[in-house]
Amino acid sequence: MRQCVNGFITFTTSSHYPMKILNIVGARPNFMKIAPLHRAFQRYPQVESKIVHTGQHYDEKMSDIFFNQLELPKPDYFLGIGGGTHTQQTAKIMMEFEQVMNDEQPDLVLVVGDVNSTVACTLVAVKMGVPLAHVEAGLRSGDRTMPEELNRLMTDAVADYLFVTEQSGMIHLAKEGVPDEKVFFVGNVMIDSLAYFRQKAAGSDILQQAQTAEKEYILMTMHRPANVDNEAGLKSILQIIEDATKYKKVIFPMHPRTSNNIKKFGLEDRLNAIQNFVLMGPQGYLQFLKLMENAALIITDSGGIQEETTYLQVPCLTFRDTTERPITTTLGTNQLLKDLNPQTVHDRMVEILNGKARKGVVPPLWDGHAAERIAEILVLTSQKRRV
Asked: Which domains does the chain have, with CATH numbers?
């Protein structure tokens, strides 16, 4: 298993100096992954690190909050793509990013995760002959009906550097025939941000705003289309909330998609009638980190929260048939629930609140230094080329 800099591949791009890297952000989780990478690149005077924000998911207020909280500079480029279908988003990003590539002539494009911005910028970089690094490579849910799964597969198939967070990623890439010299097990950059900002997040007053205290509440997030785009799913979610509030206060920072669908299906009155319940809008990174760390239990359908709760050692119930992050269920504190069955959730919730939660451990190399390993690999490879 490669953990750091064993094995190099050679750049084939221009020889200008310093080494110019374009880091792509498109959706909320990308900010937390790019922040430690950009910070790590700043330690090398020979690296020019630039940020391209596609605007795939964009809310001016929340975007500014994330850049400020994560200590990121203003993006060098903002493409302003906005909404649309998956095809429309991908096509628009490709056209706009091609112009950025022509203007910048970078030595490397770095993409993270599995959103449409990831695959769109991947295709442009590869077609223009520029090396590509994919951070969070090798994650697989096995569900090709998920757009994210297709994005992961396509990106990994053409990337030059594949940076892996957990052992399952190494196994998947080997089975898919990716050469060993392209694959590096480095740890998890999402955990880098969490570890770096944990103390700062502790100063947030979000618990006081919610009129609650540590371990006295259940945190809930739900946003995946399969769960919130239909009336039956939303009614199950409301039942789960109603059941949970009998034991603890429930705090729910609600995704706009979920909120809009509750209105669409006429369920607002039922939601507003729930007692011992705090409905919030989307939160900044520091506020949400404080909410995660101090929750008695988290109920979610998110991908990244599975990893963060594993590191924080907070019990997590995830509504997914499969997970692309299986280490969170084998080593971590995460349990998968295959459907929105309120009775199943109630039973698991009661077990956890009665002290029978999974006792997880922090996975290997989830130590807050993944970005530093990635930067070292890329810089050493670049130096080897220049010798």
From this structure: 19-188+366-386 (3.40.50.2000), 203-353 (3.40.50.2000)
